[in-house]
């Protein structure tokens, strides 16, 4: 985190700088989530879309296009596409995880049912591809269909890696790419592509989005153990209770001896948790410096993101993206 | 059913005529369902794909392309795309319906879990769009993304229309388009498009696929009440027990008086079914000629399909598609 870090969050500065574009994205989302025959579709979608969310992903697309001096209309289609894909994955995730809350409201799968969440997610996914075809850009379709495949692959991998103590940092990174980084990097990349930016700029935007996403997710996984519940809105230890092998746990397990291992086998692999186990897990994380070492990784990825921006055109939006890479890890201070 | 109806089923004749292309489609499906990181994906997909299924949809694409004298490689991509979309919807349908069997095997959601079915379906859907981009044809992407949206919309509509006695024949048709006809018509249309067939031929192929799909689904819904369980592999009355408002029921309900209505409210709307209700439903269907009238509709759609083929190039494959339209309703004799 740089010393001259401005007091207004970079996310809010991006929102202000992109206000007009974001309004256009909002209008397009409302227009395209409509369904002539099935009113259930806009009901479910609106429940999620209107709950807000940070609109981070569409902002990345808009910022990337604008900092490359794009002045056509299609960055709006692509930003709406990215938000539709994100919303579709949230709907399906909530079914997969059996979630009860999303964005501070009851999850759609509880308000309606799992069926609606699955099918409305499918509808939004199809709609996102319709939107993309309107841009007339096959190269963009390729990037976003690849990202969609990586997302689904990462989720399946997470499913099979859960509770598996032999999960490596490499597998964790694959899962994180699927959960977060694949859509971040596709979002920034297609912004550059629609602006016909030079190949090295497009590559830089991709690398920025990918590294930002990885950094963001590692920070999230650290905060699950070390966060202030009043700020994160999550309970400390949720991932431990759900037996998810996130980076801090993977580091602690790898560093621990046989006695530790018995504890992890019982609590994570077999899921036989009892009172005091979270405290013991936190103790082991501390003993092996696992949270600090994960924090170093998050900072390193944030640096990769910032470095990548050196190959992008200079300007206010580029500065805000730079500060955003600082901001996602500043939560760890 | 024409008098000179050949003894070999048109489906089997198509399969023989397209054998080489179908092998290429099979190879492409096996290749593209692979996942570098998540072996669960090909496991689940193979369970479904290798159980066979009739491969009707990819055959429609191959036949349409070939009868338009296409000699490029991309009809194989499109046929594999269509099969992937179909497989993805089957995986999601089984979650939505809580199915226990699919293609004579335990449904994937039981062998693995609902989570895997949702996520592997998403993966196949993304893969299908990747495959399409390889054809370099945005117009084809538009048709298949539209079809995907109609499919999801139709499924949501079926969800909300279920148990609703005010479901009209118009809504039923929308549901049928989503369940069956949208992918049939997209399958035949993109076959013509990839061959650069004239617009009126592409339209004829679309109309054929749509009408074939509607006819096929109406026939299925009739057989649910009138079929021979040993041939259909389904129990008579499944739709009635699941309170699905299919065409025969919609016709019987519309024709019935207030006394009938009490019966339908209790059995369909409230779902309070007891012994003898299926027999009473069959009696009411008979009293109002509902099965015969639905059969007339199926025959009329089959005629629409055959008429459409008059605008298509003549040849053996066109003849087989013609006979296929007869065959789907011949099951009702």
UniProtKB/TrEMBL annotation, chains A, B:
CDD domains: Trans_IPPS_HT. Its cofactor is Mg(2+). It catalyses: 5 isopentenyl diphosphate + (2E,6E)-farnesyl diphosphate = all-trans-octaprenyl diphosphate + 5 diphosphate. GO terms for biological process: isoprenoid biosynthetic process. SUPFAM superfamilies: Terpenoid synthases (SSF48576). Its EC number is 2.5.1.90. InterPro entries: Isoprenoid_synthase_dom_sf, Polyprenyl_synt, Polyprenyl_synt_CS. One of its GO terms (molecular function) is all-trans-octaprenyl-diphosphate synthase activity. Keywords: Magnesium, Metal-binding, Transferase. The keyword Iron-sulfur does not apply. It is an enzyme of class 2 (transferase). Belongs to the FPP/GGPP synthase family. Supplies octaprenyl diphosphate, the precursor for the side chain of the isoprenoid quinones ubiquinone and menaquinone. This is Octaprenyl diphosphate synthase. It comes from Litoreibacter janthinus.
């Amino acid at each position: 985190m740089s010393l001259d870090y401005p007091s207004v969050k970079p996310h809010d500065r991006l929102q202000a700088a992109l206000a007009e574009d974001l309004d256009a994205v909002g209008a397009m989302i409302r227009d395209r989530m409509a369904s002539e025959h099935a009113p259930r579709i806009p009901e479910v979608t609106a429940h999620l879309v209107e709950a807000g969310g940070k609109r981070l992903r569409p902002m990345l697309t808009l910022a990337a296009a604008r900092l490359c001096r794009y002045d056509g209309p299609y960055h709006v289609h692509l930003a709406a596409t990215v938000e539709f894909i994100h919303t579709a994955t949230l709907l399906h995730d909530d079914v997969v995880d059996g979630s009860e809350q999303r964005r501070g409201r009851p999850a759609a799968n509880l308000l309606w049912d799992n069926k609606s969440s699955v099918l409305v997610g499918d509808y939004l996914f199809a709609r996102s591809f319709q939107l993309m075809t309107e841009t007339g850009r096959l190269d963009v379709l390729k990037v976003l269909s690849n990202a969609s495949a990586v997302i689904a692959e990462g989720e399946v991998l997470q499913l099979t890696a859960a509770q598996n103590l032999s999960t490596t940092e490499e597998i964790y990174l694959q899962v994180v790419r699927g959960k977060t980084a694949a859509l971040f990097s596709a979002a920034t990349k297609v912004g550059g592509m629609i602006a016909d930016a030079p190949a090295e700029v497009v590559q830089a935007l991709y690398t920025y989005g990918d590294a930002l996403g990885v950094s963001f997710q590692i920070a999230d996984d650290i905060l699950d153990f070390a966060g202030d519940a009043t700020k994160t809105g999550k309970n400390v230890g949720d991932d431990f209770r759900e037996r998810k092998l996130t980076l801090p746990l993977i580091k602690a397990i790898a560093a621990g001896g046989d006695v530790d291992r018995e504890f992890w086998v019982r609590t994570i692999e077999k899921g036989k948790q009892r009172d005091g186990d979270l405290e013991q897990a936190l103790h082991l994380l501390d003993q092996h410096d696992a949270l600090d070492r994960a924090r170093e990784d998050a900072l390193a990825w944030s640096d990769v993101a910032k470095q990548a921006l050196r190959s992008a055109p200079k300007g206010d939006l580029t500065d805000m993206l730079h500060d955003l890479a600082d901001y996602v890890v500043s939560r760890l201070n």
